[in-house]
Amino acid sequence: MGNETTAIAVTEKAVADFVRGALPNLMNYAVRAYAPDAWAKTAMLCIVDNPELLACMATSAGKASLYHALRYAATTGLSLNPQEGKAALVPIQGKVHYWIEKGGMIDLVMETGAVKLIRANSVRSGDKFRLTETLDGDSYEFSPSPRNRGEIIGFFCAIRLRDGGSLVHWMSREEVEAHRDAYGKGLAKTDSAWRKSFEGMGIKTVIKMALRRIALPKEAERVIGAAEEAEAQEEAIPGSFEQMPGSGAAELERKLEEKQAQMAEAPQAASPSAEASPTAQRDKGELDIF
């Protein structure tokens, strides 16, 4: 019993030493204000409570991927406590990935001060969904089927603005898949975020697209952009701890500016069946899905 306790203590100390030792450099990537020590404790808790994450620390490649993931986690400082559902360190085949969850994305949006309330969800074939657009704002009705909801057919994000206005952004499954194919990273991997959680990634996508329809403070745009950049890091995990690049916030800022420029120049592709699509109906003012 004494040996087992010693082994656990050593493991926890190794995690604490790793996270605390990296913390000063990790803070170079922060794009919003948060309490570094409190965030670091959520990272330690997340790692210590997950045997697969602990195993990643035993190899150079695993440790490099953990540091890489923590760099992106440090940009926003979202809690990594699994119980809170804000963000997560996910071990996959001996390497660690950083994923922002729906709750974390909504927190970042609410923190901007421009939004009073936000709702986002998937819509399935058995649900009832109605969207109405007017000059006074958008409204919607959503009634999930109590059972046998069917397959996902689309996603929506409803936002109530601080000034009293409202908007509801709808994306069909096909539109989300087209966005994924155009901008998603690591799609060829069987364990990519899109393959493991299509619904969660779809909800985050419709939230981000809805945000492009409202004016956000510049600092808020940088935070949301950092979240998007974090999702794009899956295919860039270093092969060993010695290969870790040393760039900081300046490099992240450059990447965000490049990404914003690419998105601004990207043409809006029309759906093959635009006349019959839910989006075409939405543009006419109403959208019903049954």
Summarize this entry quickly.
The protein is an alpha+beta fold. Helices cover 47% and strands 20% of the residues.
Q: What layout of secondary structure does this protein have?
A:
Layout: H1 2-26, H2 36-48, H3 51-56, H4 60-76, E1 87-92, E2 95-100, H5 102-111, E3 115-124, E4 128-134, E5 137-143, E6 152-161, E7 166-172, H6 173-183, H7 193-196, H8 198-211, H9 218-231, H10 249-265, H11 278-283, E8 286-289
Antiparallel strand pairs: 1-2, 3-6, 4-5, 4-8, 6-7
Describe the model.
The chain is an alpha+beta fold and 290 residues long. Helix content is 47%, strand content 20%. It has 11 helices and 8 strands. It has helices at residues 2-26, 36-48, 51-56, 60-76, 102-111, 173-183, 193-196, 198-211, 218-231, 249-265, 278-283; strands at 87-92, 95-100, 115-124, 128-134, 137-143, 152-161, 166-172, 286-289. A hairpin with a 2-residue loop joins strand 1 and strand 2. The chain is globular.
Strand pairing plus helix content: what structural class?
A: alpha+beta
Q: Report the order of strands and helices.
A: HHHHEEHEEEEEHHHHHHE
Radius of gyration: 21 Å
Mean pLDDT: 78
- Tally the beta strands: 8
**Largest sheet data:** 3 strands, antiparallel
Identify the strand order in the major beta sheet: 3-6-7
Can you give the helix content as a percent range? Answer: 40-55%
| Contiguous uncertain segments of 5+ residues | 1-10, 235-250, 267-286
Share of residues in strands: 15-25%
Q: Helical element count?
A: 11
Measure the end-to-end span. 60 Å
Q: What overall geometry do the principal axes of the alpha carbons give? A: globular
